[in-house]
């Protein structure tokens, strides 16, 4: 197990700066997830930690040691990729054991580790099968097993689930999280899927354009995003954004044109009948689509040309084309500066 510390870490490809001097301290045993849009520098950062990319500037420490110049194999870190490299001609046992190919451990210890990884990953009955006779999830587990047998001081995952179907993805998410709870190995996980980030991370690192925008627990990022980017990125469906003039508390202020109001679809409630509950935001528009999800329905509305999503509860499914009013209660609004996109306050 190990801490990982990035100090002013930079990656340049020629003149392009892909990672622009980032600082981050990852605690021993922590599960940290990097999220951000395509090209923001997540994979490059992970590959610098792994030793697969040269570091252009700054310092990378693993434990107490500066490892900038260390070869990947000297870093004692295990990486699991998106395209898990499972060899078709080898059995599961041989594939997992491949992680110990260059190790000087004796045969009995190697076998013990392979069997233990197989047991932890629920592959013990499949150790003598070849990959062709495995499901996608079982193959992915074998790839993780190969990383596990080395007893690495950290696991690095680069979008390991993006090639799996939705059902398997959610199953593997839970399996990887359970594995982490059991092994408590420091883990850095890269994804562009905010659901993976929210459900797996101890802390989420939001990246954009080679910078770190915000670091926090999933709840901190959801409740207190520093800006519009994080606010829209974390949470599904994304937070609605509206001009300040739509909101009653803004109507009296002179700066309303410079402010955008954010409200999460979950907090914007469409009801079949009006309520006299005190609200700061009341919007009326035309229903353009509905997505019934069982206990609630997502309602897409057009509000004077602005598309928003609200939630209808209590089995109320509004008709497409109908006119509907939805309201947000006090405390659920986010006020952003329209120019800087920074969060100004909550209301
Ligand atoms: N070998 C390379 N040579 C030149 N530029 C590169 C190289 N690898 C990555 N880049 C650039 O560095 C930036 C960051 O890339 P990176 O792969 O880290 O992004 P990412 O956030 O992981 O995106 P994705 O989710 O699409 O994988 C991008 O602009 C990319 O084009």
Automatic annotation (TrEMBL):
<protein>
    <submittedName>
        <fullName>Multiple sugar transport system ATP-binding protein</fullName>
    </submittedName>
</protein>
<keyword id="KW-0813">Transport</keyword>
<keyword id="KW-0762">Sugar transport</keyword>
<dbReference type="InterPro" id="IPR027417">
    <property type="entry name" value="P-loop_NTPase"/>
</dbReference>
<dbReference type="GO" id="GO:0005524">
    <property type="term" value="F:ATP binding"/>
</dbReference>
<dbReference type="GO" id="GO:0055052">
    <property type="term" value="C:ATP-binding cassette (ABC) transporter complex, substrate-binding subunit-containing"/>
</dbReference>
<keyword id="KW-0067">ATP-binding</keyword>
<keyword id="KW-1003">Cell membrane</keyword>
<dbReference type="GO" id="GO:0140359">
    <property type="term" value="F:ABC-type transporter activity"/>
</dbReference>
<feature type="domain" description="ABC transporter">
    <location>
        <begin position="4"/>
        <end position="234"/>
    </location>
</feature>
<dbReference type="InterPro" id="IPR008995">
    <property type="entry name" value="Mo/tungstate-bd_C_term_dom"/>
</dbReference>
<dbReference type="InterPro" id="IPR013611">
    <property type="entry name" value="Transp-assoc_OB_typ2"/>
</dbReference>
<dbReference type="InterPro" id="IPR012340">
    <property type="entry name" value="NA-bd_OB-fold"/>
</dbReference>
<dbReference type="InterPro" id="IPR015855">
    <property type="entry name" value="ABC_transpr_MalK-like"/>
</dbReference>
<keyword id="KW-0547">Nucleotide-binding</keyword>
<dbReference type="InterPro" id="IPR003439">
    <property type="entry name" value="ABC_transporter-like_ATP-bd"/>
</dbReference>
<keyword id="KW-0472">Membrane</keyword>
<dbReference type="GO" id="GO:0008643">
    <property type="term" value="P:carbohydrate transport"/>
</dbReference>
<dbReference type="GO" id="GO:0016887">
    <property type="term" value="F:ATP hydrolysis activity"/>
</dbReference>
<dbReference type="InterPro" id="IPR003593">
    <property type="entry name" value="AAA+_ATPase"/>
</dbReference>
<dbReference type="Pfam" id="PF00005">
    <property type="entry name" value="ABC_tran"/>
</dbReference>
<comment type="similarity">
    <text>Belongs to the ABC transporter superfamily.</text>
</comment>
<dbReference type="InterPro" id="IPR017871">
    <property type="entry name" value="ABC_transporter-like_CS"/>
</dbReference>
<keyword id="KW-0997">Cell inner membrane</keyword>
<dbReference type="InterPro" id="IPR047641">
    <property type="entry name" value="ABC_transpr_MalK/UgpC-like"/>
</dbReference>
<dbReference type="Pfam" id="PF08402">
    <property type="entry name" value="TOBE_2"/>
</dbReference>
């Amino acid at each position: 197990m190990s801490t990982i510390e990035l100090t002013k870490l930079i990656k340049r490809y020629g003149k392009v700066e892909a990672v622009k001097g980032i600082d981050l301290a990852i605690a021993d045993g922590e599960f940290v997830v990097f999220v951000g849009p395509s090209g923001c520098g997540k994979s490059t950062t992970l590959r610098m930690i792994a030793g697969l990319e040269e570091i252009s500037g700054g310092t990378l420490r693993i434990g107490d040691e500066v490892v900038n110049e260390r070869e990947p194999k000297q870093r004692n870190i295990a990486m699991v990729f998106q395209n898990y490299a499972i060899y078709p001609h080898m059995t599961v046992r041989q594939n997992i054991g491949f992680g110990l190919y260059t190790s000087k451990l004796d045969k009995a210890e190697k076998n013990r580790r392979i069997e233990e990884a197989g047991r932890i990953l629920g592959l013990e009955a499949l150790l003598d099968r070849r990959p062709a006779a495995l499901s996608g999830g079982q193959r992915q587990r074998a790839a993780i097993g190969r990383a596990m047998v080395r007893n690495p001081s950290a696991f690095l995952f680069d979008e390991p689930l993006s090639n799996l179907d939705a059902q398997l993805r959610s199953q593997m998410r839970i399996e990887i999280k359970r594995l982490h709870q059991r092994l408590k190995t420091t883990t850095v996980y890269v994804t562009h899927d905010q659901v993976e980030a929210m459900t797996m991370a101890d802390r989420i690192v939001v990246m954009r354009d080679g910078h770190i925008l915000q670091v926090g627990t999933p709840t901190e990022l959801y409740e207190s995003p520093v800006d519009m980017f994080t606010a829209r990125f974390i949470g599904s469906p994304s937070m609605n954004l509206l001009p300040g003039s739509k909101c009653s508390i803004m109507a009296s202020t002179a700066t309303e044109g410079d402010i955008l109001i954010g409200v999460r679809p979950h907090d914007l409630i469409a009801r079949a009948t009006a309520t006299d509950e005190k609200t700061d935001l009341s919007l009326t528009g035309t229903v353009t689509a509905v997505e019934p999800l069982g206990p609630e329905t997502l309602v897409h509305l057009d509000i004077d040309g602005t598309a928003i999503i609200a939630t209808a509860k209590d089995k109320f499914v509004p008709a497409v084309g109908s006119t509907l009013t939805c309201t947000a209660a006090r405390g659920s609004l986010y006020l952003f500066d329209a120019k800087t996109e920074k969060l100004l306050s909550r209301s």
